[in-house]
Amino acid sequence: MSAMSIKRVPDPPRSRFMRGLSRFAAAVGGTSLAAMILVTFVDVLGRNFYKPLPGASEIVSFLLGIMFFAGLSLVTLERAHISVGVLAEKLPGPLRRVEQVFTWAGSVLCCGLFAWMAVRSSVTLWTTDYLTSYLEIRLAWVVFGMAALAILAVPAALYVRPPRADAAHGAAGGSGEGTT
Q1: So what's the pLDDT on residue 61?
Q2: Where are the domains of the chain?
Q3: Transmembrane segments in this chain: where (predicted)?
Q4: Distance between CA atoms of residues 161 and 103, nearest Å
């Protein structure tokens, strides 16, 4: 038996900043996921001995937010969004290009809105001195970190432009691979 090989369309070379952003987002997201798993494991194990981990639910919720915003940059750079191309596949070339540009612009806009909302929330939390319920951590610090990660998603979204009109039906065979 011979192994099947899948041909992948090569991505354009990335700038040093985008490669660094991708590595940073993967490291932060992966570390927060591993920490979430560890905290949950220790908490569940402790509950069996009537000694749950104090503040575990707060810690897990912080880590989940950090993982989400780190993952937003990574998913955007890798064009790994969930996409449904039922109608887009049926569009003629010029309309497909218009749809790709609108989709890209919508991604940039959404990333920008996420960043703006996160910054706005962190500033509000800073001015109110809001503390978490159990650990009494100043929540603004955590949300500032999430806002910083959300801001990094904006250049990622700007970088991942829609494919050129001549490349849209090229090596990918018009299957929609690499589009968001």
Answers
A1: 96
A2: 16-79+92-159
A3: 21-39, 59-80, 101-119, 139-160
A4: 10
List of residues 6+ apart from 78 with CB closer than 8 A: 22
Q: Given pLDDT bands bounded at 50, 70 and 90, which one contains residue 170?
A: very low
**DSSP structure class, residue 131:** B
For range 38-42, the mean pLDDT: 97
Torsion region of 173: left, alpha or beta (phi above 0 gives left; psi -120 to 50 gives alpha): left
Q: Is the dihedral angle over the CA atoms 84, 86, 87, 91 positive or is it negative? A: positive
CA atoms within 13 A on the CB side of 85: 18
Say if pTM beats, i.e. exceeds, 0.85.
no
Look up residue 86 and give its two tokens.
Answer: 């039922």
Chain-centroid distance of CA 159 in Å reads 14
